[in-house]
């Protein structure tokens, strides 16, 4: 019998070397495209990334997002965007745009010492 | 454990209360503050019978949609279908409870089931011929295409009725309708989006959606004819006249099918009410046997 | 988002040893690894396997209770159960999403589940013959799952940790509704009380097995713990579960089917009897009571509705703006 571990979730499954882990995935076939979902929980807050889902098109994506991530809570705002349309940078790739942030401490609000008695800062 | 437990408890308390559950699980009281006395000039027996019609439609359609859970196309649709079923279950519970509160159980309620809530006595201990749902909701699902065409037709007709019931002289019905309109609009739009995509998708999906429409349309034969109970309640300012919803329903369904490149099947000639009078095909008895079996096996139990 | 890629010319690519040092430092500092970060291939593969099996477990886990959806014995119970089963579909979705941030593809993972190339938790291969099973699954199975899952809210992989926070939040309600159902049934008829005890007898040992084999027989755990993917050992989590559950059983008024179960005066924890791992291995190997049925239903959901998925794709292509 192969190794077994409770690697989280609902319990133990085999994990030994003879259990195949996933190969490189087939480049998307019949599947619907992946969308990233952003929700504004209430007025005054930013939209925040909450997860993703698959949908055939934008309209279906926004409705599925409402069903899944907000339980159709009225009054929240949802953005969906195709994951493939997101341009991202990664800090570990040491892109130039990330280099300055570490040494420009004045960008950070905590750099400025504010006296305790100043209200609402 | 320390940190993990803190995480867990914080989550728990931040989202405590019944709001965590999806709609329709019935811990809250959506009718809180609504006057439940039956207004003057309304026959409680008629009102109860009418609540059964609307409640049974919701219960039976919820049961049909629940048959898709663990069998739906894509997980996103699994969640959507369950949401719609939960909404309908919530509507059914309010309507059956209202029917019970105005006395439909009456003398027929035997002592063995006296401790059972009204909604359960009505859902679990009536036989098929006592159910007042239409053939439109009782019919089997068919494939996903037929299921969505039926949902479109059922949500559209129910929405037209509920929109009118917001002005009902019965304050409870008016409150149930006001809550239900938003839900039914969502159900109708969800079904319409699918009918559009299936009708105008692949040749196979077009064929299946068309077959679904052809199977569903005849079920609309008694959708626009009122029973005597409904006619009396229309006169009393309580019920919506189904005949008055025809133009709206035909308009919406025609528009969706047209856009979906589907042929609108011939509209059936108006037929006298069947399901509303307790006349059902065998498929309802099968559905109810599954729904009611366990509850009937243990009539003295509490769940 | 796509898998981590390093597609620039080799000259500009940071060398792998430096990346490995940075990764190790992030783990050592108990900070999170995020999707586009460099990560060792073994870490990525272990995570994909773990998250996928977790997602599969949620989706297959809808079935044992789902079998009672149409027959739930009251309107309130029906609504609660439907909401719960729906939550599980949602959990599966969150988790598949987390796996996709590592370059996996949901349809592909589903295929592997159906072809039995990936596993799901063996607990869901047991049948649910009575309605008390719905309650006991909530109390014991979801309770054990919570013990496993709460530490994962601190998993080193960010998207997994975040998905788990959402899952745990909902899972706690699942456990409560299960326990509340059992309490209600215990206040009911003799037949109902017997049903509850019978279900506890059947589910107790499989619940303990959910934590996996003893630590000294669990060779993969060490690497996962070093990577911060796994936070506590199998035996530690199992002991926590037992300690938590024994008092709950007493309040409920049921007997846990283990004569050796007794408090240990020295440690203040509960000692319990030896687990029969041969049964566990049988179920895991695919010889459980419901393995075939569970996979068959998942396969049918995929195959019978493939035309729906294709239709929506075709519609989207026609109407691309």
Structure description:
The complex is a heterotrimer of chains A (about 120), B (about 300) and C (about 325). Chain A is α+β, with helices and mostly antiparallel strands. Chain A has helices spanning about 60-70, 100-105, and strands at about 5, 15, 35-40, 50-55, 75-80. With about 300 residues, chain B is an all-alpha fold. Chain B has a single domain (about 40-295), classed as Up-down Bundle (Ferritin), CATH 1.20.1260.10. In chain B, about 60% of the residues lie in helices and about 0% in strands. Chain B is built from 11 helices and no strands. In chain B, helix 6 crosses helix 8 (about 205-215) and helix 7 (about 170-200) packs antiparallel against helix 8. Residues about 1-25 of chain B have low confidence and may be disordered. Chain C contains 13 helices and 2 strands; from the N terminus they run ααααααααααββααα. Chain C has a two-stranded antiparallel sheet. Chains A and C meet through strand 1, strand 2 and strand 4 of A and helix 2, helix 4, helix 5, helix 6 and helix 7 of C.
Described by strand count, sense and barrel closure, the largest sheet of chain C is: 2 strands, antiparallel
State the CATH superfamily name of chain B: Ferritin, core subunit, four-helix bundle
- Spans of chain C of at least 5 consecutive residues whose pLDDT stays below 50 are 1-6
State the helicity of chain B in percent bands. Answer: 55-70%
According to CATH, the fold-level topology of chain B is Ferritin
CATH architecture of chain B: Up-down Bundle
Total beta-strand segments of chain B: 0
Summarize the largest interface: chains and residue counts: A-C, 47 and 82 residues
Mean pLDDT of chain C: 90
Q: Which overall shape of chain C is indicated by the principal axes computed on the Cα atoms? A: globular
Instruction: Please state the oligomeric state of the protein chains shown.
Output: heterotrimer
Structural class of chain C: mainly alpha
Q: What's the mean pLDDT score of chain B?
A: 89
N-to-C order of helices and strands of chain B = HHHHHHHHHHH
**Helix run count of chain C:** 13
What is the name of the CATH class of chain B?
Mainly Alpha
Which range does the strand content of chain B fall in?
under 5%
Secondary structure category of chain B: mainly alpha
